[in-house]
Write a structure and sequence with these properties.
mainly alpha; single chain; two-stranded antiparallel sheet; 5 strands
């Protein structure tokens, strides 16, 4: 059996939950720049009546939205860059050092070897690409919303279109407070952020744990700690994960099972079947 974590230390699971909660809070705060900009634009356009200054007021409202959209893009890009370059390596290293804690080995045994550098580089690049892809999709949706809102406001300002300006309908058609999934499924931003960041952080920390068990401790297997009933490859997989021993290669293939999974890998200091 593996040795318990050193007394007085929060578990890796607890640290990851706090880490993910902080990142989710930062990301959703940035996203509010976009949703506030949408609300501000709709209110500004709804207040415009046909007249000599209508075109100028529409242009002013458009420019304010574009400034807010640019700020959102800058802030989210900075978040993504920090997440990929700083936060994920911290999660990786925390997973690695926790493995040494479980084995009662000193932290000085670990360093950024080529194996660990290669692993974190691959993970950071993948997750950076995933998040920047989400940013591009959101900017595209924001531009589509802006075009629709401006077209409705301009039609109304010409006096030739008697249809009223409908902010609620525009918001329903272009809900910028959601993230679009495959099949046109929409999820609230905070729910998406928590799921995406949990997947990325747990995958990264567990990869650090698994590769440290293999490289620094010469383990061939790891012991899995997971939620009761959680499957190995997915939550519904009948092959349950908790308490099982998995080979290094199998563990690397499945460091987590689903977006909200907080799986933990511990080194097995022996051969399968040995105490």
């Amino acid at each position: 059996m593996t040795t318990p974590v050193r007394p007085g230390r929060r578990t890796l699971r607890a640290r990851l939950l706090a880490f993910i909660a902080d990142a989710t809070g930062r990301l959703t705060t940035i996203w509010r720049l976009l949703t506030r900009a949408q609300t501000t634009l709709l209110r500004a356009l709804a207040a415009i009546r046909p007249g000599r200054n209508a075109t100028s007021r529409i242009r002013t409202a458009e420019q304010a939205f574009r400034r807010a959209l640019a700020q959102y893009a800058r802030d989210l890009t900075a978040f993504i860059e920090r997440w990929a370059a700083t936060d994920l390596p911290i999660a990786y290293r925390d997973g690695a050092l926790t493995t040494l804690d479980h084995a009662r080995r000193p932290h000085t045994l670990w360093s950024w070897t080529p194996t660990h550098q290669g692993a974190i580089t691959t993970l950071s690049a993948q997750f950076y690409s995933d998040l920047t892809g989400r940013l591009r999709d959101t900017l595209r949706r924001a531009e589509a919303f802006l075009r629709a809102a401006l077209a409705a406001a301009r039609a109304r300002a010409t006096r030739f279109d008697p249809a009223p300006f409908r902010p609620a309908a525009l918001r329903r058609e272009h809900p910028l407070d959601t993230v679009l999934y495959a099949g046109n499924r929409r999820h609230p931003v905070e729910a998406w952020a928590r799921a995406a960041l949990t997947w990325q952080a747990v995958t990264t920390a567990n990869t650090g744990s698994i590769l440290t068990a293999a490289e620094q401790l010469a383990c061939t297997h790891v012991e899995v700690r997971d939620g009761a009933g959680c499957g190995w490859t997915s939550h519904q997989d009948p092959d349950t994960a908790d308490g099982t021993l998995r080979t290094i290669s199998d563990a690397l293939a499945h460091p987590t099972a689903h977006p909200h999974c907080i799986r933990e890998m511990r080194p097995h200091l022996g051969t399968p079947g040995s105490p």
